């Protein structure tokens, strides 16, 4: 995954290219966590662009396919959890997903919990609906009224599943990225660049620092994203414009 030390050094070199300023570890850390989230969220719009390019016949295919690469990157953040209906609200609480550290970003799919019987799964796909008006029409329709063989979920603040007899569901979703220790172990902490002072000099502290959870090939994007925010923070238009221009150029090169 992308090294926080490498990203920090890249940002520092870019920001101080013309002796314009210095980015402290504390400022870097506040930007690093936002930058990772921005890039992660952008993957969902990038995958739509990749699909469009693929349909237009410009997809190089196989391992060089941008669509495949984004799907592969996002798959790392996919997880599955089982929810039990909350007795008080009668709904399935989104906060129950990874309850110890709620991390829901976007839902992928929902099924009834079910089981595996003689090699066959008894789980049933739950159709997801985000429209309050549409769900009312579904519930009132004699033809499309949900049943245990064809359940429907209304996705809002929480998850309401029809029919009410369904008590447990299995949810696949994308979680928010967090961080990894520099030794590669999973961590609930966000990317952080830590230093210790030795002989009056700040030295990178690998033991307490947290790497990014985005793959190595997003290192340049992380550097540019943080540099853009740093330029705005320092009111240095040259840094901001340089970072923004490079981001546009990189996006165009990925798209075509």
SSE topology string: HHHEEEEEHEEEEEEEEHH
Poorly predicted regions are none
Instruction: Indicate the structural class.
Output: alpha+beta
| Distance from first to last alpha carbon | 25 Å
How many strands in all? Answer: 13
Oligomeric description of these chains: single chain
Average pLDDT, all residues: 86
- Rg, alpha carbons: 23 Å
Task: Classify the beta-strand content into a percent band.
Answer: 15-25%
Q: What report would you give on this structure?
A:
This protein is of the alpha+beta class. The protein has two domains: 148 residues, no CATH class; 98 residues, no CATH class. Helix content is 38%, strand content 22%. Helix 1 packs across helix 5. The radius of gyration is 23 Å and the shape is elongated.
What structural keywords apply?
about 260 residues, alpha+beta, six-stranded mixed beta sheet, 6 helices
Question: What is this entry, summarized?
Answer:
By secondary structure, the protein is of the alpha+beta class.
Q: How are the SSEs placed, and which strands pair?
A:
Layout: H1 4-15, H2 25-55, H3 66-75, E1 78-84, E2 104-112, E3 116-117, E4 120-121, E5 125-129, H4 132-140, E6 152-155, E7 159-162, E8 168-175, E9 179-181, E10 186-187, E11 195-198, E12 201-204, E13 210-212, H5 219-233, H6 237-255
